[in-house]
Design goal:
alpha/beta; Rossmann fold; 2 domains
């Protein structure tokens, strides 16, 4: 199939788009294409995801079942676990996880396995786009050789590009379609096809000169956040010792109309991006004998925050009741990695629960968005634990309450009034006007 034919299919929305990985990136992306009138075939190794989609049911809180059901009924969205059907797609988008190993090195097994699955049915005329966040060079150095092992030639028989996902679950101001889409490829035809592909739904496209440049864009965005969050976390420690409220400092500083952007401290980093992505560049930089000191220092500061929070809780508990953590009952409020989402990936709350239990505490949690702790690679022992009901009379029985995530809709005034001790890592009580003596910032 020639370049002109593929380009016309994309421009006319007659192309079939395959999306591999139907999680927090792949499902919203599939919906964006489907709601723009383009047919989508989703792929996932987890059979529950295609099953939910085929039944018109959502498994992500910020994607409604009504939207999925409408797209399915209009024959614009379907899903399968049969990866042999990848050959049906005119464009294939890879939206699979890119975690770190225990040694903080990139784990590209999901990307590599997906590339092999695509290669098994790769045919002339297909466009393949990697969306998974990774180090510069992955598209050309990892994905391309796997696809070219079929005997087909990139840039001639098929095309390859990179377009980083920019999802922000829970952010009502932006959606997949309204967030500017960065697109990069190593040849003009691949860029033109990728632009035509994302023009189907994206309001704004940002074209860059190569796949490596596009890969670097995504890492730069997340490293920027990681470093600045580490800075305010360190400032929180310093100002706390001085008796200065870092939240008040930030609120005042952000009134400056130029030269300052507010970032906020917390109990550690969560989500799939910020705790992980910076270390992809750290790993790649070693190939060029460059030390990524800012990135690694930011990682150390952010990774140490859960231990700092636990230490603050110990001090506050001793001052309040003269007891230690061993045998104490603690309620953790908020399990998701950020407010108003059900996403627990890399959530610092999970680490906080483990640290509390290691010190002998009896721990429960409450999260209106996470009724049950899902299975995770890092915290398998917590799988299946359930959120307790929100009852102020029950909350008063705990020795301490630790606010790890500041979901909207939680009665922080009632919580502060009912609890014996509240250790607040998100300034939730102060923002709710509950400036009581039993509330300690951490």
């Amino acid at each position: 199939m020639t370049f002109d034919i593929v380009l016309e299919k994309l421009k006319s929305k007659s192309a079939l788009v395959g999306v591999v990985g139907l999680g927090y990136v792949g499902l919203p992306l599939s919906m964006a294409f489907a709601e723009a009138g383009c047919r989508v075939l989703g792929f996932d190794v987890d059979p529950s995801k295609p099953a939910h989609i085929e039944e018109g049911q959502s498994y992500l809180k910020h994607i409604t079942s009504e939207r999925i059901e409408r797209a399915v009924n209009q024959h614009l969205l379907s899903a399968t676990t049969d990866f042999d059907r990848l050959s049906e797609s005119d464009a294939i988008l890879i939206c699979v996880p890119t975690p770190l190993t225990r040694h903080m090195e990139p784990d590209l097994s999901y990307v590599e396995n997906t590339a092999r699955a695509i290669a098994n049915g790769l045919r002339p005329g297909q466009l393949v786009v990697l969306e998974s966040t990774t180090y510069p060079g992955t598209t050309s150095e990892v994905v391309k050789p796997i696809l070219e092992a079929t005997g087909l030639v990139c840039g001639k028989d098929f095309w390859l590009a990179f377009s980083p996902e920019r999802e922000d679950p829970g952010n009502l101001d932006f959606s997949t379609a309204t967030i500017p889409k960065v697109v990069g490829a190593d040849d003009a035809e691949a860029r033109a096809l990728a632009i035509a592909l994302y023009n189907i739904f994206a309001k704004q496209l940002v074209e860059v000169s190569s796949s490596a440049t596009a890969e670097a864009v995504k890492l730069t965005e997340n490293i920027f956040r990681s470093v600045n969050i580490a800075l305010v976390n360190e400032l929180k420690l310093i100002y706390g010792r001085m008796g200065i409220d870092v939240w008040e400092v930030i609120d005042a500083a952000k009134t400056k109309p130029f030269g300052f952007m507010p970032f906020y401290p917390g109990p550690g980093l969560g989500g799939h991006c910020i705790p992980i992505d910076p270390f992809y560049l750290t790993w790649k930089a070693r190939e060029y004998n460059i030390a990524t000191r800012f990135i690694e220092l930011a990682g150390q500061i952010n990774n140490n925050m859960p231990e700092h929070v636990i230490n603050e809780l110990v001090v506050a508990l001793d001052a309040k009741s003269g007891r230690g953590l061993n045998g104490a009952s603690v309620l953790v409020v908020g399990l998701a990695y950020k407010k108003n989402v059900d996403d627990t990936r890399e959530s610092p709350a999970l680490r906080l629960i483990e640290l509390l239990q290691l010190r002998g505490a009896k721990v429960d949690y409450h999260d209106p968005f996470v009724p049950e702790i899902p299975k995770t690679r890092e915290h398998p022992d917590l799988t299946g634990r359930q959120s307790i009901p929100w009852e102020l009379s029950r909350i008063s029985a705990y020795d301490a309450v630790l606010i790890a995530t500041d979901h909207d809709g939680v009665d922080y005034r009632g919580l502060a009034s009912a609890a014996r001790l509240v250790v607040d890592t998100r300034n939730a009580c102060a923002r709710a006007g509950a400036n009581l003596s039993n509330v300690v910032a951490a």
